[in-house]
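Justification of resources, computational component.

The compute hours requested in this renewal are based largely on the per-chain cost of generating structure records like the one below. Each record pairs the submitted sequence with a full structure-token output. That output is archived, and it is also reused by downstream analysis tasks.
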Amino acid sequence: MKRSRTLPVHMVSALVLASATTFVAAPASGQDVADIDYAYLSLRGIAPEFGYFWSDRVEPTQTYGLRVDMGYAGPGLRVTPSLTYWRSRLERAEVDELADQVSDLVAARTGGPRPNLDLGTIDYQDIAIGLDAHVVWEVPFDLLTFGGLGVSAHIIDGDGIAIQGTFVEDLLDTVLPGVNLHLGAEYPVTNGMRLYAVGRYEVMPNLQYAQLRAGWQLMFGPNAPGEGRND
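The structure output for this chain reads:
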């Protein structure tokens, strides 16, 4: 069975603590955003995203994505679908462990000696379709802060010269569910454009990672009360 490895405890603890702190502080501020109604649930904007992630199984790498702003489904509750892509390589220790598991499987099935396998390098890529719910509130200087939870479906593809066309490649190609915790902030450069940054911690059945993203959103629809610039 695959051993469980997690990211450094201080990274997870910091993100969880920051999220808990901001959720507790949210009711004390941002009454304009908190009082908006359901009329703001509509396509309002789209943003390209760029980021970087650190995983427990694959090498750190860049991420690319697209966030869609669907406005508010309730008071202070914003809905944002997203599409994210990244490609990296499995860490050497993970490839060696996979080779050991395949060797054990071959020996068990054939009854023969355990083969020594070299799987080379294995590329790992993910296309994630996600849906996040943001609890949004205002802070001074026109900033909006947000935190929340999200769900996602991850289309995973494993590839490598040594495993191409084998059952090992078939095992790596799969679709997995994911959940995430996130915390971020955004600034309206103008009422039609905003910049944002967000930290995320994503958990999947066989993979978990911390991620930092930044995006530039163009607004198609109106700002909700309290979202725009105050000048």
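The two ends are 59 Å apart (CA to CA). Confidence is low (pLDDT under 50) at residues 1-6, 9-31.
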